[in-house]
Design goal:
- By secondary structure, this protein is of the alpha/beta class.
- The chain has four helices and eight strands.
- The strands form two sheets. A five-stranded mixed beta sheet has the order 1-5-6-7-8.
- Strand 3 and strand 4 form a beta hairpin.
- It is globular and about 40 Å long.
- It starts with a strand and ends with a helix.
Amino acid sequence: VLYVRQGQSTEEEIFSNFEGSPAFNRFLNLLGERVILKNFTGYKGGLDVENGQTGDTSLYLCWEGHEVMFHVSTLLPHSDTDKQQLQKKRHIGNDMLCVVFVDDEKTPFNPACIRSHFLHTFLVVHHHKGTYTIDAVARESVPKFGPSLSDRSIFSLGTEEQGAEFRRFFLTKLVNG
């Protein structure tokens, strides 16, 4: 999961984020639960659960028989001396699918700014005043996967029921991707 602040467009800018906004944290809470990595016994997703080399906490999901350990850019270790943030990129850049949370509706996200041989699909979420707009961008070699999106699928999060509906839709799209 990448966090993109308003106006960010380069890989270096995006990977340099070491904390997210309140809106980003609410989004993470919809996706899964924060877990302490030390001695974690569920699916680890390649994260270090013994020595803390990949941070102290991460985001985990067990949903409909699927275990997902999210590689969250703001929860992976940040280095002030590494402009490329290779520790973060090592995990996120080797995933097949990347969730991108853009913290406003006007900042475009271009998947080409993230250099990776493995990332094939991006689920891009733009946040704006209590709504999420979702786009799916995939390499040509990736077959279409459901649930289908309209040109720009917009979800309102005003009620708990709407949040639950968004979560079901998004997690289904994520797992199928």
